[in-house]
Design goal:
By secondary structure, the chain is an alpha+beta fold. Helix content is 35%, strand content 26%. A five-stranded antiparallel beta sheet has the order 1-2-3-4-5. The chain is extended and about 85 Å long. 23% of the residues are buried.
Length: 206
């Protein structure tokens, strides 16, 4: 009886080992396929954003930041940066291309969790078109140079925020613009000050 039990245990152990090895092999193969497809999709998006580029140089200036320089021969014909934001459905990744004149010439959302037919209206090419032509240092303001979609305000503002983030990265890592941190609240004289900012429907004054 003991011998039969030991034999059965050995057989089950062998079956489990073979199954585990098979699953690991399948996982490794499918992972490679997924990575290859993701890389191909990325290259396709980059090519759409900078069509004149013959190849792309990937640069990682700091952890978590990746930029792609579009090259035609030895000339840089454009740069693509990835902006990040949080939409209604979660994290959002947005590719923003800037041309040699330092103006936006393309926007593409590559990851999102927005509601189909509602939030995704802010991801459509027709709406994203409004960013094209804006200067790299132009402040994005809802209701002024960025139209917000009624019923998809969170998604619209998230895309706007992601584009603004990408432009900040462009200024820092491509143009090497230094951040002016010389402003000091302690040097501001005592008094009453007034400021305005864009609200949901109109400007807010404080």
């Amino acid at each position: 009886m003991m011998g039969e039990t030991a034999k059965l245990g050995a057989i089950l152990g062998l079956v489990c080992a073979i199954a585990g090895a098979s699953l690991a092999l399948v996982h490794a193969v499918t992972s490679d396929i997924i990575i290859a497809r993701q890389e191909a999709e990325l290259i396709s998006r980059l090519q759409e954003l900078v069509p004149e580029a013959e190849q792309f140089e990937t640069i990682e200036p700091e952890e978590g930041v990746i930029l792609y320089l579009g090259k035609k021969g030895s000339d840089t014909v454009g740069a693509v940066l990835e902006g990040k934001a949080t939409g209604y459905g979660g994290p959002m990744r947005i590719l923003v291309s800037v041309d040699a004149d330092n103006r936006i010439n393309g926007v593409s959302v590559i990851e999102h969790g927005e509601t189909i037919g509602i939030g995704t209206r802010a991801l459509e090419p027709g709406w994203l078109q409004q960013f094209i032509g804006l200067a790299h240092d132009e402040q994005l303001v809802a209701g002024k140079n960025v139209d917000i979609i009624t019923g998809a305000t969170v998604s619209s503002r998230a895309v706007m925020s992601g584009v603004a983030h990408a432009l900040e990265l462009y200024q820092t890592h491509v143009l090497k613009t230094e951040v002016d941190d010389s402003w000091n609240l302690a040097k501001v004289p005592d008094g009453v000050y007034e400021g305005t900012a864009p609200g949901f429907q109109s400007e807010i004054t404080v």
